[in-house]
Amino acid sequence: MKEAKTIYEQLGGTYREENGNLIPDAKLPEQKPIGKYGRMHLDYLKQHRRGRYSALLGEGRLNAYLSEIDEQAHEMLTSLTVELAKSQGIDEQLKTTDQMRWVQMMNNVRNSAEETVMRELILA
Predict the structure, then answer these.
(1) How far is Cα 123 from Cα 42, in angstroms, rounded to an integer?
(2) What are the C-alpha distances in Å from 68 to residues 44, 46, 78, 101, 109?
(3) What is the reported pTM?
């Protein structure tokens, strides 16, 4: 007589035997790092978009989604920083002639770019 398969086995799962007990061979999917902006968006989802958070978590897509958000945020931050620096005339010549002024201006540009990323991507 053939043994009845469990639902886990019917779905393709297997078991291993340890000390007379059958232990499921469950493997978690490989997870990508989510980074600073991914973690910030995760906090936002948990606090303000619980339904979306629950849906992504339940579908097993939360980590991939947060990793993608983090990637997009870094790309957006880089392009905005370059664009804003160019529009304000911040260049290598300024860097060589007045380093302190260059640092001040670049910090302002970076902060402005990060505020835009937060408003349009992380907290949206």
Answers:
(1) 10
(2) 15, 17, 15, 35, 24
(3) 0.74
- Rounded-to-integer distance, Cα 30 and Cα 24, Å: 18
- Token pair, residue 95, equals 């860097």
Q: Per residue of the chain (124 residues), what is the pLDDT tens digit?
A: 456 777 777 777 788 888 988 888 777 667 889 999 999 999 999 999 999 999 999 988 999 999 999 999 999 999 999 999 999 999 999 999 999 999 999 999 999 999 999 999 999 8
Residue owning tokens 């380093």: 99
| Separation between Cα atoms, residue 14 and residue 25, nearest integer Å | 6
- For residue 6, give both structure tokens: 């469990």
What backbone phi and psi angles, to 5 degrees, belong to 110? -60, -45
